[in-house]
Amino acid sequence: MGEKKIYTIFLASPSDLQSERDIVERVIFDINTVLRSQNIVLELIRWERDSFPSIGEDAQAVINRQIGKQYNIFIGIFGSRFGTPTSRGGSGTEEEFMEAYHRYNLYPGQIEVLLYFKDTNVRLSSIDIEQLVKIQNFQKLVTQMGVYYSEFKTKEEFYRKLHKHLVAALESLKNYSLTSNQSYFDPSRKLTKAEDNVYRIAQHDFKINPGTPQWADYLHITPIKKTIQTISFNYYSEEPYYRIGIKFLEPEGRLFGDGSIQSSDRNRVLHLGQNSSDEPIFITSYINGVRESIDNRIIENISKESYINVKIVISLENLITVFINDKNYYQSIILATIRKNAYLLVWGDGLPINVSVKHIEVMT
């Protein structure tokens, strides 16, 4: 008999979903019954069983430290409650999801993230409006982040869906371990401090999105709510007209305004662009939806035939500097409250657009 292969699963949810948490346990038990002959075992981590009393910044920090990042599959469930806020997130469950999402982008193919929302039938008098709004906002946020989630109404439906999805996630992980040139993710391996503070995406191709203002395509590049120190990326486009930039906004800020990239809440948009193939590339800044009182700054002596490097550096004093191919083209002060949430956007104002971006890196 060969060596036993263990896949670890972390379960995250607010406190109102005890029955659903028990269903997860049952699903894993049933799948393990089948996998036993393949020498594969699924192990479930539940905070109420796998953590112990200790001291930390708060209870969630204690759980984070004890549970760590030692899992291959993340299962997150939300019902009628969003959960209790922490100093690092809107709730402990949101914080745990963001950590999983962060690792998914750091190590594509080596972790699977399953997210579920329960369509609850509760009496109107028992609805907590504040919690409901937080859940709805979170659904919008994860959708913008490119997350496909599943919904269910009954316990039976949740069992069927989770069973199917968990088997598919396991097959995905197994296939990755067989085909990847990288070694399989070791559950005992811990991220280094440097890795823990750096969020990377190897490449992302942006195209027109007719369903958004100015037909913008976008990518959330700060899933972990930590203060941004640097953002860097390389981009290339053959389009005669395009815009590409970063929007910094508050945690509950608006990604889009009314029919526009710009919104009147607290935010900063820094973007590069060109109006035609014959015209130079320029950089523009908007503060709270209003164009900054500077002319478009022309990016001089730059080749359009290769990838262009953009690096944004923010100091401890909130001084923001933009470098294009290592040359300083912009400097200003940014609000501290918008340094933890940022999106990379590309748009063409209704024109066809195709922009390739690679080596995206955010350091916190």
Using brief descriptors, characterize the structure shown.
364 residues, alpha+beta, Rossmann fold, Jelly Rolls, 2 domains, 7 helices
Describe the structure.
Helices cover 25% and strands 31% of the residues. It has 364 residues and is an alpha+beta fold. It folds into 2 domains: 5-193, Rossmann fold (3-Layer(aba) Sandwich), CATH 3.40.50; 197-363, Jelly Rolls, CATH 2.60.120.200. It is elongated. The protein starts with a strand and ends with a strand. Mean pLDDT is 84; it is low at 178-194.
Which strand-content bin applies to the residues? Answer: 25-35%
- What oligomeric state do these chains adopt? single chain
Helices and strands, in order, run as EHEHHEHEHEHHEEEEEEEEEEEEE
Mean pLDDT: 84
Structural class: alpha+beta
Low-confidence stretches: 178-194
From the coordinates shown, what is the CATH architecture of the largest domain? Answer: 3-Layer(aba) Sandwich
Structural shape: elongated
The fold-level CATH name of the largest domain is: Rossmann fold
Number of strands: 18
Separation of the first and last Cα atoms: 46 Å
- Cα radius of gyration in angstroms: 22 Å
Total helices: the number is 7
Number of domains: 2
Percent of residues in helices comes to: 25-40%
CATH class of the largest domain: Alpha Beta
Largest sheet: number of strands, sense, barrel closure: 7 strands, antiparallel
